[in-house]
Specification:
The complex is a heterodimer of chains A (311) and B (296).
Chain A lengths: L1 H19 L2 H35 L2 H7 L4 H11 L7 H13 L4 H14 L1 H10 L4 H25 L20 H33 L12 H15 L6 H7 L5 H10 L5 H11 L1 H26 L1
Helix pairs in contact in A: 1-2, 1-9, 2-5, 2-9, 4-6, 4-8, 5-6, 5-13, 6-8, 7-8, 7-11, 8-12, 8-14, 9-13, 10-12, 11-12, 12-14, 13-14
Chain B lengths: L2 H21 L12 H24 L26 H10 L14 H13 L15 H9 L7 H6 L20 E2 L2 H10 L10 E9 L5 E7 L8 E8 L9 E8 L13 E9 L17
Parallel strand pairs in B: 1-2, 4-6
Antiparallel strand pairs in B: 2-3, 2-5, 3-4, 5-6
Classes of the chains: A mainly alpha (311), B alpha/beta (296).
Chain lengths: 311, 296
């Protein structure tokens, strides 16, 4: 509800104020909001279809065979497995949820959730295109994202509590006597409607910041190395740019240090407004608040460390 | 949430996506042209889901409550709601989403109550319990169908620092045509990076939209997307010599470089002295820095 308020209130304010003074702002807000929704929709559908399919068609033993039995080892393996999901971050939340439902240890599922949108081939290729002649940027992004995902998985093993997760895990898998296709269709449909609503909340919040914060004020922060890292990291959270595009945005932030831009690309696919909304809807608010905060801190530290060494 | 609402949400979302991607070019206001097949496919999938849901709703309204595969009330714990009062019990649950148990179900008598109790205990496979936040999907769906907002324009461009153009080492000789059609990005490259100074005293022609600036000057602008309108960046060329047309008007201008600083370095202003100005139609895909078409 808080998130909903945070998303709606500024939007409503803009509507009200916009009527009198600044109608183009309102139009830009609606355009950006729709753009985020439209852009994310195919990937969200892909993710929810995958999660429905995992739920209905993939037997539980497949995962227990693929992943190492010990959770400590399963975490990095699941992180690396993120390579196979070619999409942006909206697809990974429902998939991670259905993995947990199929008996995958939550820590490994979260490592997958964090790494998949950042290290898949589509995103890495886009990064290479956005930073021509600097392949080290791609390497730094890959390493920093993997490190963050693995550390977050281990952190969950160490500190995480089941009770933060929403108790009702809806994905119960295939049951005797029910049509698999029917289960697939209903799981797919439910997940899409559920996540879609939260996607709209996130898009509204992101559009609000996108329109309210002109990018020209950014340059005031580019002087100090530490401040610029923190600033670009929080910008990644607020702007909620799709992970397939954030490399281009990062490349355009020419005034900032390479490490700060790396932080932008590492944080963006893991923590942003629409993701927080999606996670809150899928795993519960108690989880989303803690998990996103911790991920933000870990991601900033990882990119600072790896950026410091490589860039 | 009632299944009817789910059908409506799915069908409207599907139609919205199909409307902007298949029937019109409106999707180009929000995303890049490469997204079109994905959007059409998504719209078709959503529509199919909605139709399938409506079909099962129609054919099985009586004995096929949503998620209820069981036939005997309470006998199948996963079925959730028993068969007899199934449809109604389901409705009760739906409206109770988020607020706890539905009240409608309890009015159905023992049968429905039993089914509900078991279903709750199992946190069963009850896909009818959707949060109210799903209603928000109506906004983009209806907006896409009836009231699609325009592409980003002068408002956004005026508030953004111009896109940093990448460094270009090698410059080919410019074609001899005059006026020379050139993109805003290319012009910026030529003015600020070309040590051969090929752009000097050449008449160029560029197309873009009008972004009013301070005082009497204005800027010819293009907005470029990397992925969607949330990451819009702009390239601008400052215009001297003609008063600004209305903001967001698409114009084609010819003129020569406006001298200042040292040509071929970053100190050179990206600006032209305009000789002719002509209003043009907005290109179908406005979010790219394309060459002007046609003759002036």
């Amino acid at each position: 509800m808080l998130l909903l308020g945070a998303a709606l209130l500024p939007g409503v304010l803009i509507v009200v104020i916009g009527r009198w003074s600044d109608a183009p702002a309102m139009q830009a807000w609606r355009t950006v909001c729709l753009a985020i929704t439209v852009q994310a929709m195919p990937f969200l559908l892909l993710g929810t279809a995958l999660s429905g399919a995992i739920n209905a068609f993939v037997p539980e033993r497949v995962f227990s065979r693929l992943l190492p039995r010990r959770p400590v080892l399963a975490v990095p393996v699941a992180g690396v497995a993120g390579v196979v999901l070619p999409g942006c971050e909206c697809a990974s939340v429902p998939v991670a949820n259905s993995l947990i439902g199929r008996g995958v240890t939550p820590a490994a599922a979260f490592a997958f959730l964090l790494s998949a949108p950042a290290i898949n081939p589509v995103v890495l290729t886009a990064t290479a295109i956005a930073f021509p002649g600097r392949p080290v940027m791609v390497l730094a992004r890959l390493l920093a994202s993997l490190a963050t995902a693995a550390i977050m998985g281990w952190l969950w093993l160490w500190l995480g509590k089941e009770k933060w997760l929403r108790p009702a895990v809806r994905h119960t898998g295939h049951r005797e006597g029910a049509g698999r296709w029917r289960e697939f269709r209903q799981g797919f449909q439910h997940d899409f409607l559920h996540a879609g609503g939260f996607l709209v909340v996130g898009a509204m919040a992101a559009a609000t910041f996108n329109v309210a914060v002109p990018r020209s004020v950014l340059d005031t922060f580019s002087g100090s190395p530490w401040l610029s890292v923190l600033f670009l990291a929080s910008l990644a959270v607020l702007l909620a740019v799709c992970s397939e595009a954030d490399a281009f945005v990062a490349a355009s932030l020419a005034g900032f240090s390479p490490t700060a831009r790396l932080a932008f690309m590492v944080v963006g696919p893991m923590v942003d407004l629409k993701l927080i909304a999606l996670q809150a809807g899928t795993f519960g608010r108690a989880f989303a608040a803690r998990f996103s905060t911790a991920t933000l801190v870990v991601a900033v530290l990882c990119s600072a460390a790896i950026g410091g060494v490589l860039l | 949430m009632k299944r009817f609402v789910q059908v409506t949400l799915l069908v409207l979302s599907g139609l919205g996506l199909l409307h902007v991607s298949l029937f019109t070019d409106d999707y180009l206001r929000y995303v890049k042209e490469g997204m079109r097949p994905l959007l059409v496919a998504s719209g078709a999938v959503l529509l199919a889901l909605g139709v399938a849901e409506a079909w099962s709703l129609r054919s099985g309204a009586g004995d096929d409550a949503h998620g209820g595969h069981g036939s005997g009330a309470g006998a199948d714990p996963h079925g959730g709601h028993g068969s007899g009062a199934g449809a109604d019990a389901h409705g009760g649950h739906g409206s109770g989403a988020g607020a706890g148990l539905g009240t409608g179900a309890s009015g159905e008598g023992g049968e429905a109550d039993a089914g509900r109790a078991v279903g709750e205990g199992h946190h069963g496979h009850d896909h009818s319990r959707l949060p109210r936040v799903s209603w928000l999907l109506l906004l983009p769906a209806l907006s896409l169908i009836f009231y699609a907002p325009p592409a980003l324009g002068a408002y956004t461009a005026a508030r953004e620092a111009p896109k940093a153009v990448d460094a270009q080492e090698h410059f080919d000789p410019l074609p001899a045509t005059s006026p020379l059609p050139i993109t805003l990005t290319d012009f910026t490259h030529r003015v600020q990076q070309d040590k051969g100074l090929a752009i000097r005293s050449r008449t160029v022609r560029m197309t873009g939209f009008v972004t009013p600036g301070a005082g009497s000057t204005w800027e010819l602008t293009r907005i470029i997307l990397s992925c969607c309108a949330a990451d819009a960046q702009s390239v601008k060329v400052r215009i001297y010599g003609v008063p600004a047309p209305r903001a967001n008007t698409w114009v084609s201008v010819t003129g020569t470089w406006h001298p200042g600083g040292t040509l071929g370095t970053a100190s050179a202003p990206v600006a032209i002295d305009v000789r002719t100005l002509k209003k043009v139609r907005r290109p179908v895909n406005g979010y790219q820095d394309a060459l002007p078409i046609g003759t002036s």
